[in-house]
Design brief:
This protein has 192 residues and is an alpha/beta fold. It contains 7 helices and 6 strands, in the order E-E-E-H-E-H-H-E-H-H-E-H-H. The strands form 2 sheets. The protein has a 4-stranded mixed β-sheet with strand order 3-2-1-4, sandwiched between helices. A two-stranded parallel ribbon has the order 5-6. Strand 1 and strand 2 form a beta hairpin. The longest helix has 14 residues.
Amino acid sequence: MAGRGYTIFDTAIGRCGIAWGEAGVAGVQLPELREIETRRRLFQLYPDAREMRPPEEIAVAIEGIAAILRGGHGDLTGAVLDMSGIPAFNQRVYQTVRAIPRGETRTYGEVASALRASGAVYSVAQALGRNPFMIIVPCHRVLEADHHADRISQNGGSASKRRLLSIEGAQPTTSKTLFDVLLPVARPRPHP
């Protein structure tokens, strides 16, 4: 790979973007409401990147992302991430989160425990809020302590964790209301 590049590509949830450099994928941008906003976000994050045809290893990552976003089983295990400039703790968080299987979720606390840093729940949440590798590092699979789907990272585009989890077949708990807290009801059992 020569220099830093980016491209915009079609997915089932809209036009996503990906930026890369010599060391691998630099970032993935989920679709904003309009493609021009997705492009603007990529330019803000990677002002030195030029729009170009992706090299083979990036094309494979794009295919995996697109497959996942249409509900398929894209394989992103071989996607190399450019972790330069990313704090060591965040790198550990991203490696741990990449291992969460499709259709499953974890809490911020469970990720912190897996890192043997159980007191670092807030730091895990902060790291995932800064995740530049959307879908490849599936931060949408990490939920609040009560398994409620909160918002996606600040640069996540218009997609929500709930929508991404639904595409993957996972069902996060819906947001609690005062009624749920005061008067819990028996949940119907799923049919086999």
